[in-house]
Amino acid sequence: MEGQHNHIEQNSARIWQIGLFSLNNTSTNLFLAMMGYVSYYANGIAGLGVVMISVILTGMRIFDGFTDPVIGFFIDKTNGKYGKFRPYIVIGYILMAVSSMVLFFTTSLIPTVLRPLYFIIVYSVYIIGYTFQTAVVKSGQSVITNDMRQRPMITFFDSIFIMLAHGLVAFYVSVYLIGKYGTFQSQALFSEFVITVVIVAGICSALAVVGIWSKDNARYFKIDASRKQQIHFRDYFTIIRHNKPIRMLVIAAASNKFAQMVYGNSTVIVMLYGIMMQNYPLAGIIGIIVGLPNLGIIYLGINNARKVGQKITLVRSTWLAILFQTIIMFMMIFCDLTKVSLTHINVITIAFLVVFTLLNGFKSISNNIVVPMIADCTDYEYTLSGHFVPGIMGALFSFIDKSFSALGTGFVGIALAMAGYSKVFPQVEDPLTLQLKFLTIFFYCIIPIMGWLVTIFIMRFYKLDRNTMRGLYGKQS
Q1: Would the pTM count as exceeding 0.70?
Q2: What is the CATH number assigned to the segment(s) 15-217+235-473?
Q3: For the chain, what are the domain ranges?
């Protein structure tokens, strides 16, 4: 390949190292799943308006994107006693844990006129901690392994753990917390919620540190001891100009993430399960039921990636997600989904569970396989420039990804406000209207399909397929 002049030595890992390190991503997703309900806290407990919350959360998501380049830059500059990545995992968790507790326990106690500003300040601290950990998610994998048959295993563990994180949180909220407290307008609900997440995420972060421990040293940083690696902020612009694969990957992933932020929005889930299906606890229970079959689909998908490469697997899984999302859409239009019941099994229940299982499995592959693909782009950059900059590559990815996906949260809030929900979000007990049915289908089906079509189109211009990566690593089979 033209311009390549740096050889990459093979670096393999033990499976348990890949698995434990993936728990860092699980930690961030536990906090992310919890913060998916922050709009209900801010609206129902703190008394902030729907439009104000949507604007604040969109702004915070954009701020989140701008913190990535800074943290990524410092990660690449870091090479101390405790490694390059471990300090950021620990500091990130501490910042998220403390700010989350402060946010959910104290915002409602602040004078009304000061609450929006207080919310923004505390949430900003949370965002900084979140960036610390997510920057490691996207950069630390570069030192875990560069074995082409092992990198897809990162997707396997990420998909499983993220599915468990979001599935168990949904179950915990819809079945246990709502069952115990009856409504989202309960301070006690959010107090118990945040304490649980902080404890479980802390365990995940600690295990992630163990997973990356032996790899987090200069031996795996591809740094030539004879010359100091010079890294500058201008390198962001240099990389995005000459590294086409990372440009294509971030655009595809941003489209995916926008769709994910819309269909996974807590309000959209309430609209689907609580209002349209009139069975909100099903939102949590169904995630548990389809969990094991999803593992089988993810396993088959990752095996496919190990054989044909990550690019082809991303495209195939995205096409299949579009297919099953379309089937779900037609079921939402033409079927009475209130008949989906786990106590009275019928044809609609079986059909919905089968299609939902297949949809979730392929969505998991499509959403998560982009993460190890960043490591491919990092290795490609090293062959071009001689710079090993996983922090910059991960941050560049996150910056554009988060900046575009920030629109997802704001999009749902503003669309709902325009539909008449400017003061209160749709609640579980609301009756189903034709307008709510259309909005649910639009958010849950149409937007994801449009986003996935963009992803498939962009991947036509992403050249790091299996054959290209084999050329980078030389002897790998």
Answers
A1: yes
A2: 1.20.1250.20
A3: 15-217+235-473
